């Protein structure tokens, strides 16, 4: 046999055979393996932790959905609103980017317009958490009389399906932000929610008591709320 034909045949076999016998190292579990029969609370917690770890490390593989047991409806995330979900940059652009003294009247007028855009990264996180089954609570320093405008603005910006919007009621007026927000988080904990995460642009959104398992501080170079 011609040497070149022999060499070509050898190379062809060398290429084809490994392809026939090799297997992908990526294994997609059969559907039935997505669920299991463990009943104990400890097992459930480990099972769910495993899922969360996989999601956070972007290692959830080809699974298309979360196992039904990866949540009992009590995992919660708390979002602040101003400069966390909604950006008031259009307002501050014409008010010195926070360098002017805060003017409640003109800010209220801006709030009533309900046109603040979403912070894109926050909207993305919000939607992902919502899809994962987290109950989303919106905890803001805005007052009850601003509920309607706030809801309209959240919908305008693309937010949907929050569990509860918590605003300052009459008895909350004058309470320091850290205390007010801690008290509201504590109410959620007393209702059985596990506050897994909290996002806010002020430290007073995150500190105090009934603190989330993980807290995420967004930057806000324009103003500070103690
Ligand atoms: Mg804020």
TrEMBL record:
Pfam families: Acid_phosphat_B. Residues 1-22 form the signal peptide. The keyword Glycoprotein applies. The keyword Signal applies. CDD domains: HAD_VSP (cd07535). Keywords: Glycoprotein, Signal, Storage protein. GO terms for molecular function: nutrient reservoir activity. InterPro entries: Acid_phosphat_B-like, APS1/VSP, HAD-like_sf, HAD_sf. PANTHER family: ACID PHOSPHATASE-LIKE PROTEIN (PTHR31284:SF10). Belongs to the APS1/VSP family. May function as somatic storage protein during early seedling development. This is Acid phosphatase 1. It comes from Quillaja saponaria (Soap bark tree).
């Amino acid at each position: 046999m011609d040497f070149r034909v022999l060499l070509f045949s050898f190379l062809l076999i060398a290429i084809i055979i490994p392809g026939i016998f090799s297997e992908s190292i990526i294994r997609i579990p059969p559907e039935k393996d997505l669920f299991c029969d463990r009943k104990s609370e400890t097992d459930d917690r480990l099972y769910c932790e495993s899922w969360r770890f996989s999601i956070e490390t972007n290692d959830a593989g080809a699974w298309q959905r979360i196992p039904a047991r990866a949540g009992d409806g009590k995992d919660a995330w708390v979002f602040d609103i101003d400069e966390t979900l909604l950006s008031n940059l259009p307002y501050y652009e014409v008010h010195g980017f926070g360098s002017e003294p805060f003017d409640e009247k003109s800010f209220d007028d801006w709030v009533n317009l309900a046109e603040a855009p979403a912070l894109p990264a926050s909207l993305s996180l919000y939607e992902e958490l919502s899809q994962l089954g987290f109950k989303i609570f919106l905890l803001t320093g805005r007052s009850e009389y601003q509920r309607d405008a706030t809801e309209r603005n959240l919908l305008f910006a693309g937010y949907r399906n929050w569990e509860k919007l918590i605003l300052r009621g009459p008895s909350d007026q004058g309470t320091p932000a850290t205390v007010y927000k801690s008290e509201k988080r504590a109410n959620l904990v007393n209702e059985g929610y596990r506050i897994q995460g909290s996002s806010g642009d002020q430290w007073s959104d995150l500190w105090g008591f009934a603190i989330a398992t993980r807290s995420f501080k967004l930057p806000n170079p324009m103003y500070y709320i103690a």
